[in-house]
């Protein structure tokens, strides 16, 4: 089967699905937006990859600007057209697409319909709900109206899909309502890369290069948007001044907030570093005594911080501020892999950080528990089996329409 795996963001774990599908004999093209500056996986052929695996970076002519809604919208439309042209040229049997802005996804759905390709909607988050929330806050009634347009688009895309994969059961009810059929919705939780992200010594080349070997480090790694509560990191640095470093390895629109606070508050212990290549990711996480993640209330309803899976693979204790019913929160609490506080509980977040700073035995236990959970859950062969079952059922559903 010729499969196009489209992961707009180019995140690391999706590449493992493409590689495993190719190892099983499928002809796989993995496409992604090269202009998105978030964390990327190994998006090129490596030793052991076969000729039936290809990677396709997609670009647009204009600069991609997440800070401007209007410019971003036109960029998304341009990107969607390029992705549609790729589908028309390659003519895959099946397309699975996730992490994709709503208007760009519309062109992908239309191209699949034109070329009679089975389409799987991979719900990493509800982009339209995120846009609606942001625009309503900024523009009031006008923003709410624009948000309704995006919700309508996403509903139509789900209704037109042959299968829907959600990353958490919390997304199922809405996906069923929008998709129109319960039996075409399947939950497959995101996973981490067990072989590529392993528990690493703190004293490693990356941590030595950045002077992080001899300090206690609270480390945040990954995209930092406003939905990730950047002020929690600022407050953590203020509380830990003189005792620990808060290391932020990131790109994203909210990094500028940290830069301003670092300068205005003279937070020498707030260390801001650019995203590292994926080949260094194990050592980046190895520098952490505690790995930190945060997501605000509104975002917690439509998003799961996937960086937590990488933290678990690295065997690092997790300090998470998120809605308590968010999937990441439930995993950390259930597996005793760290500390979880409500996304609005800054005093609780700082108190948990204090406890983790002083309790080495708890940190060690949390880290072991996290890696144990990852070993039991993130097996890519088992994950791929589930995706292939979704693909088979979606193909049958598509065939029944003709």
Q: What this model shows, in words?
A:
The chain is α/β, with parallel strands linked by helices and 402 residues long. The chain folds into two domains: 212 residues, Rossmann fold, CATH 3.40.50; 173 residues, Rossmann fold, CATH 3.40.50. Helices cover 47% and strands 16% of the residues. The two termini are 19 Å apart.
Helical amount among residues, as a percent range?
40-55%
Based on CA inertia axes, which overall geometry fits?
A: globular
What would you give as the CATH superfamily of the largest domain? Glycogen Phosphorylase B
| Spatial order of strands in the largest sheet | 3-2-1-4-5-6-7
Please describe the biggest sheet, giving its number of strands, its sense, and whether it closes into a barrel: 7 strands, parallel
Low-confidence stretches: none
CATH top level of the largest domain? Answer: Alpha Beta
Order of helices and strands: EHEEHEHEHHEHEHEHEHEHEHHEHEHHH
Cα-based radius of gyration, to the nearest Å: 21 Å
Instruction: Classify the beta-strand content into a percent band.
Output: 15-25%
Q: Quickly count the domains.
A: 2
CATH architecture of the largest domain: 3-Layer(aba) Sandwich
Report the total helices. 16
CATH-derived topology of the largest domain: Rossmann fold
Mean pLDDT: 91
Question: How many angstroms separate the termini?
Answer: 19 Å
Number of strands: 13
Outline:
This protein has 402 residues and is α/β, with parallel strands linked by helices. It has helices at residues 12-23, 69-90, 102-114, 127-139, 141-160, 172-179, 205-209, 230-239, 255-264, 281-286, 297-300, 307-313, 327-334, 346-358, 360-377, 380-400, and strands at 2-7, 27-33, 53-58, 94-98, 118-123, 163-166, 185-187, 217-221, 245-249, 270-273, 290-294, 318-321, 338-341.
């Amino acid at each position: 089967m010729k499969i196009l795996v489209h992961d707009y963001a180019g995140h690391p774990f999706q590449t493992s699905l493409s590689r495993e599908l190719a190892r099983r004999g499928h002809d796989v093209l993995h496409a992604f937006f090269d202009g998105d500056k978030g964390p990327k996986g190994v998006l090129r052929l490596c030793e052991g990859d076969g000729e039936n695996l290809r990677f396709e970076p997609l670009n647009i002519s204009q600069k991609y600007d997440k800070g401007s809604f209007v410019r971003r919208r036109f960029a998304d439309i341009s990107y969607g057209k390029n992705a549609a042209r790729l589908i028309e040229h390659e003519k895959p049997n099946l397309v699975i697409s996730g992490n994709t802005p709503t208007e760009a996804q519309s062109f992908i759905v239309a191209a699949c319909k034109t070329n009679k390709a089975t389409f799987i909607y991979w719900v990493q988050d509800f982009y339209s709900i995120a846009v609606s929330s942001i625009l309503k806050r900024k523009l009031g009634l006008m923003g709410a109206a624009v948000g309704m347009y995006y919700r309508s688009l996403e509903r139509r895309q789900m209704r037109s899909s042959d299968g829907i994969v959600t990353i958490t059961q919390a997304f199922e009810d809405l996906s069923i309502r929008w998709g129109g059929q319960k039996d075409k919705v399947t939950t497959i939780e995101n996973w981490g890369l067990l072989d590529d992200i392993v528990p690493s010594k703190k004293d490693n080349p990356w941590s030595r290069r950045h002077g992080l070997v001899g300090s206690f480090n609270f480390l945040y790694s990954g995209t930092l948007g406003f939905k990730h509560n950047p002020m929690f990191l600022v407050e953590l640095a203020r509380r830990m001044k003189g005792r620990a470093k808060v290391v932020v390895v990131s790109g994203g629109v909210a990094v500028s907030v940290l830069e301003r606070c670092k300068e205005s508050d003279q937070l020498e212990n707030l260390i801001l570093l650019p995203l590292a290549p994926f080949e260094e990711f194990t050592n980046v996480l190895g520098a952490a005594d505690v790995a930190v993640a945060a997501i605000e209330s509104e975002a917690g309803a439509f998003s799961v911080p996937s960086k937590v899976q990488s933290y678990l693979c690295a065997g690092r204790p997790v300090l998470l501020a998120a809605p308590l019913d968010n999937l990441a929160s439930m995993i950390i609490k259930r597996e005793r892999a760290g500390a979880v506080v409500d996304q609005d509980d800054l005093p609780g977040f700082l108190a948990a950080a204090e406890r983790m700073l002083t309790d080495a035995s708890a940190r060690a236990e949390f880290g072991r528990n996290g890696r144990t959970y990852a070993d039991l859950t993130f097996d890519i062969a088992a994950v791929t089996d589930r995706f292939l079952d979704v693909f088979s059922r979606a193909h049958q559903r598509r065939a029944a329409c003709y």
